[in-house]
Structures are given as structure tokens and as C-alpha cells.
């Protein structure tokens, strides 16, 4: 789990993290259910000189993919700053998403992304219980997806009270602790 602590430390202008909910559509183009996924994307190489140490994120991303039974792929990505190699880790199975859910329960997020995680986690529970293709599940899904990620319009910062309690408990020092702050 040592490398997994770094999951919360990966930062930068080329990192994308999303708790995703994906439509399940039948051949008649009708919504029949939903799937939960998580993705974290990172450029392959750190953009600054790291001296004698490795500047690649590949090892940590491989460990994340392995620990969460996720998939890993590298690809070329174009941006306004040019072209660079990127790494994508994705979870999509019930097993991998359950592991991820347990991780974020143990090491909670302390940013607005926590709100997306909490909504995703509720829908994951419906999926695990087989309710993701029921009327109840679809209603919950439609209400939730409309207010996640870039569509979020309401924010609640109450979870930060536990962050400050943790910070005080640690004497203001967070170094070495797996605290999710992205």
C-alpha cells in the first residue's frame, strides 16, 4: 500500500480524475441501467528535471492499476503545449470499484472531488446490490449524474471539518500520511 499513498499525491496540470457513471443503452436506444467507473490519467513523464531519480509516473500508475484490479494503457495526447505520452488507469468491475470505494473510505478526499465520490459510491452500492437496472436505481442515477463532475452546481464543504481535526491531531504535519487532497 506504500505506492497507493501516492495516488493522493499525484498532482499537476495534466492529471484527470473522474468518478464516472456510464449509461447502459439497449438496441432501441433506451436507458436500461448504468455502470460505475473511475479513471485517473497522468502524463507519463514529470515535466521538470528530477536529477538522478526517475521522472516517470509509470511505476506508481502500474501499482495503482494492479492494486485496484484496474486496466492501464499509455497513449499519445495532444495539448496546447504540444504532444506528450499519457497513462490511464481505469476501474470498471464490481471488484475493482469495491476496492477503490474501500480505499477512499479509509483515505478520504478533502476537496470538491469528494462530493463526486460520495455520489458515485451511492450508485456503486446500487450496482453491487443489483438495483442498477431497476426503476428505483435509474431514478437515483438520473438525479445523481445531473450534478456530478463538471455539471455540479451545489457544493457542501462540511467534510473539511474532519480535515482540520486531522490536521490538528497531527500537529499541523501531514507529511507521510495518505490524505487525499485533489
Question: What is the gist of this entry?
Answer:
This protein is an alpha+beta fold. The chain has helices at about 1-5, 60-65, 95-105, 115-130, 135-145, 160-170; strands at about 15-25, 30-45, 70-80, 80-90.
Describe the 3D structure.
With 182 residues, the protein is of the alpha+beta class. The protein has one domain (2-169): Roll (Endonuclease I-creI). It is 35% helix and 23% strand. The protein has 6 helices and 4 strands. The protein has helices at residues 2-5, 58-67, 94-106, 113-128, 135-145, 160-169; strands at residues 16-25, 31-43, 71-79, 82-91. A 4-stranded antiparallel β-sheet has the order 1-2-4-3. Strand 3 (71-79) and strand 4 form a beta hairpin. Helix 3 packs across helix 4 (113-128) and helix 4 (113-128) packs antiparallel against helix 5 (135-145). The longest helix is centred in the middle third of the chain and has 16 residues, at 113-128. The radius of gyration is 18 Å and the shape is globular.
List keywords for this structure.
disordered C terminus; globular; 4 strands
Q: State the shape.
A: globular
Distance between the termini: 19 Å
Quote the CATH topology.
Answer: Endonuclease I-creI
Spatial order of the strands forming the largest sheet? 1-2-4-3
CATH superfamily: Homing endonucleases
Question: Helical amount among residues, as a percent range?
Answer: 25-40%
What does the average pLDDT come to? 78
Radius of gyration: 18 Å
What characterizes the major β-sheet? 4 strands, antiparallel
Q: What is the β-strand count? A: 4
Strand content: 15-25%
What is the ordering of alpha helices and beta strands? Answer: HEEHEEHHHH
Q: Poorly predicted ranges (pLDDT <50, ≥5 residues)?
A: 1-14, 175-182
Quaternary assembly: single chain
Number of discrete helical segments: 6
Output the CATH class name: Alpha Beta
Q: What is the count of structural domains?
A: 1
Which structural class matches the secondary elements? alpha+beta
Amino acid at each position: 500500500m506504500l505506492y497507493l499513498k501516492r495516488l493522493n499525491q499525484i498532482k499537476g496540470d495534466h492529471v484527470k480524475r473522474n468518478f464516472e457513471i456510464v449509461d447502459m443503452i439497449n438496441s432501441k436506444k433506451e436507458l436500461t441501467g448504468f455502470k460505475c467507473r473511475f479513471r485517473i490519467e497522468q502524463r507519463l513523464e514529470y515535466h521538470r528535471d528530477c536529477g538522478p531519480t526517475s521522472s516517470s509516473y509509470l511505476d506508481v500508475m502500474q501499482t495503482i492499476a494492479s492494486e485496484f484490479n484496474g486496466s492501464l494503457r499509455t497513449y499519445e495526447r495532444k495539448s496546447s503545449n504540444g504532444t506528450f505520452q499519457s497513462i490511464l488507469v481505469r476501474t470498471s468491475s464490481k471488484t475493482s470499484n469495491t476496492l477503490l470505494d474501500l480505499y477512499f473510505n479509509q483515505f478520504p478526499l478533502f476537496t470538491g472531488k469528494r462530493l463526486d465520490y460520495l455520489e458515485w459510491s451511492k450508485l456503486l452500492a446500487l450496482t453491487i446490490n443489483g438495483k442498477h437496472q431497476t426503476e428505483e436505481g435509474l431514478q437515483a442515477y438520473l438525479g445523481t449524474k445531473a450534478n456530478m463532475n463538471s455539471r455540479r452546481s451545489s457544493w457542501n464543504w462540511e467534510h473539511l471539518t474532519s480535515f482540520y481535526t486531522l490536521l490538528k491531531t497531527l500537529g499541523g504535519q501531514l507529511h507521510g500520511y495518505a490524505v487525499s487532497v485533489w
